[in-house]
Amino acid sequence: MFYRLYDIFTEHPLDLIAESISIFPLIVGVVRYRSLRKGVKFLILFFFIIIVRDFTSNLYAVRKVNNLFLYNLSAFFEVISVCLLFRFEITKKSTKKFVDYGALITVLLCVFFWRSNELSAGILTSSRLYELLVVLFYFRQLIEDMNVKDILKHSLFWISSGLILQFTGTFFVYLFANYALSINTESGLFNLYWNMNQIMYITFALFSSIGLWVSKYDKNNFL
Amino acid sequence: MKLYIAVGTAVLLVMAIFIIVFVAYYQQKQIRQQLILKEWQEKYRKGLLAATLQAQEHERRRIAQDLHDEIGTMLSVTKLSLNQLGRTVEHNDPSSTVLVQKTRSLLDETIANVRRISRDLVPTTLERFGLVSALEELAEKASNGEVHVELSCSDKLPPLMPQLDLTLFRIAQELINNAIKHANAQHIIIDLHCQPNGILLSVIDDGQGFDLDEIMKDRKRGLGLRNIESRLNVIDGHVTFDVEEGRGSRIHIQVKNLKPEVEVEVEPV
Ligand SMILES: Nc1ncnc2c1ncn2[C@@H]1O[C@H](COP(=O)(O)OP(=O)(O)OP(=O)(O)O)[C@@H](O)[C@H]1O
Ligand SMILES: [Mg+2]
């Protein structure tokens, strides 16, 4: 079994990095747990889910079972996490409503687009779109409210930046998942897109780690 | 298709980076301006407060001077003529002597009161002999059969910043007044302590204490504690209320004393 795993990781070295990097924000989050803002605490849960997902997906890969549905499944958790992450931070009532109902609608859409044997472009795109909008709303609020003293020490700024980079970097790949990441895609191309996906995830995990790390400044960083 | 994905991703990524940099840059720039404005407002507010307090002291000094110079003088003159009147009356109508004597003692009492009030309005001892002497005098005056006020000052005070001694004195005055008026205390300790570049003044009583949150919520409460806060605001001081219902109160005042002052200006009354 380990030989098989070894084979997979030597074939896709980026996967090894991407899958182990999740430990990073998880540890930082646990270390900083007491200074985390309410919503940010859900980020730890999110990374935990990712770790579980990657572990399960490796297990399936070793057993040569199709594991792509796990990524569809994790999009659900992603939507819910992003909703929980931002809904406590957003002050405007109407935007908060959008965040809440948007999450609900996106989850329903994801159910509608469900695929159990391949990556679903519908799920991945709609979830990304929702998350992108939420982050943009949050950025707008940051600029409008002007209540963060030093934005480089603001945990949610880093997390949002990581999210937005990940979404934009993978949006087109997911939009054309039927072409780019399907079972029929030739393996060289598949690997290219998959690696892109992993690189963006690594970026997100690193940005999140920074965000979780600077959360200790959050308490005194508001006007 | 490959091209679409590559170009689309590149465009989106560039946009994302642009948005992030823009948000960070714009936010930082605006906030800097806002902080400067806030600082400025704070400074202005403090200046206003300081001016108000100073005006108050000026007014007190003026009233004290008027009382002393005008009413006091008039009363002295009145006493003089009463004495003359007394001598005349003693000759002609000995039965009125008692009345004259009564008037004289009333007049004496009034003169003493005017002197006391004008002296209380302006802390002369503070200006002449410094904070420790003034607090000693305050403790002595406040002590009587029921209350014992004690000053404990461990070390020699460094030269104080202007206004600092007056602020500390007024605060001590109010705290002792409170302890006598509200706490039913029997023993009050004024503790003056030097700290590295600061002074710690504590007023400790053994009275009944009070619930600070409740007092702070009360809209109709007195001005004493509020005045203490605004006085401290001007000189960047801190007050800590170590209070609780059912036990004596401990109130600590912490002030910075960075620039040593040269000489206290003496303005006689
Ligand atoms: N040392 C103390 N012990 C018990 N209660 C106190 C003490 N100091 C203050 N208090 C309570 O706090 C309240 C507010 O005090 P504060 O000095 O602000 O107003 P005041 O003394 O009632 O009026 P003023 O000081 O304006 O003459 C008092 O009414 C009293 O109930
Ligand atoms: Mg009072």
TrEMBL record, chain A:
Keyword entries, A-Z:
Membrane, Transmembrane, Transmembrane helix
Q: Which residues cross the membrane?
A: 43-62, 68-86, 98-115, 121-143, 155-176, 196-214
* Top-level division of the source organism's lineage: Bacteria
Put simply, this protein is called Uncharacterized protein
Which species is this UniProt entry from?
Larkinella arboricola
TrEMBL record, chain B:
Which residues are the signal sequence here?
none
- Transmembrane residues, as ranges? 6-26
Tell me a Gene Ontology molecular-function term this record carries.
protein dimerization activity
- What's any one GO cellular component for it? membrane
Q: What is its EC number?
A: 2.7.13.3
* Top EC class, one word: transferase
Keyword annotations for this protein, in alphabetical order, are: ATP-binding, Kinase, Membrane, Nucleotide-binding, Phosphoprotein, Transferase, Transmembrane, Transmembrane helix, Two-component regulatory system
Q: Which reaction does it catalyse?
A: ATP + protein L-histidine = ADP + protein N-phospho-L-histidine
Which domain of life does the protein's organism represent?
A: Bacteria
**Family annotation (PROSITE patterns):** HIS_KIN (PS50109)
Q: Histidine kinase domain spans which residues?
A: 62-259
The protein depicted here goes by the name histidine kinase
Q: Tell me what organism the protein belongs to.
A: Larkinella arboricola
Q: What is the lineage of its organism?
A: Bacteria, Pseudomonadati, Bacteroidota, Cytophagia, Cytophagales
